[in-house]
Amino acid sequence: MRIHDSAIGVVLLLLAAFMAREAAGFPPMPGQRFGPSLVPNLLAAGFAICGLALVVSGLRRREVKGLVELGEWARKGGHVLDVGFVVGGLALLILLWKPVGFLIGATLYTGLLAARFRGGRLASSLLVAALACFAVDWAFRRLLLVPLPQGPLTGLYW
């Protein structure tokens, strides 16, 4: 698959604008020359420079066939559907993040995707996904001290 440089550049420019807008709302640090918005603004500037360079290089190129050119893989047996499952499932997980919780949502998402990509081995895929999600939840909760949403499991485990 090939995505035109100008399309990627526009996405980077939009991301840079979003990052700069969000960083503008960060409160200043009293007594400090630099506040918490410094790094996001530097990243936004880098994204904007790269995005502008990609847009310019994409527009200078004469052989424009379209914004997205799918490769041979996209024409074979369900690969575009697989991409849809990955992106759509992730969007659904983001929407249901708080009510469903991390352990239930992420276990179902990764387990069902793994089963799809492993030829339908559902039980072992869900088991591995559950173990991996428990490890991630434990690391966030105990090591990073950032509790992930628990959903209906609130209060049932550590």
Distance between the ends: 44 Å
Identify the strand order in the major beta sheet.
Answer: 1-2
Radius of gyration: 21 Å
Uncertain regions spanning at least 5 consecutive residues:
none
Q: By helix and strand content, what is the structural category?
A: mainly alpha
| DSSP strand count | 2
Helix count equals 6
Percent in helix: 55-70%
The main β sheet shows up as: 2 strands, antiparallel
What average pLDDT do the residues reach?
86
Overall geometric form: flat
> What is the count of structural domains?
2
Following the backbone from N to C, one meets helices and strands in this order, namely EHHEHHHH
Q: How large a portion of the residues is in β-strands, by DSSP E?
A: under 5%
Task: Describe it.
With 158 residues, the protein is an all-alpha fold. It folds into two domains: 68 residues; 81 residues, no CATH class. Helix content is 65%, strand content 3%. Strands 1-2 form a two-stranded antiparallel sheet. Helix 1 packs antiparallel against helix 2 and helix 3 packs antiparallel against helix 5. The termini are far apart.
Short note summarizing the structure:
The protein has 158 residues and is mostly helical.
Features:
158 residues, mainly alpha, 2 domains, two-stranded antiparallel ribbon, 6 helices, 65% helix, flat
Helices and strands, with pairings:
Elements: E1 2-3, H1 5-24, H2 38-60, E2 68-69, H3 79-95, H4 97-100, H5 102-117, H6 122-143
Antiparallel strand pairs: 1-2
Helix pairs in contact: 1-2, 3-5, 5-6
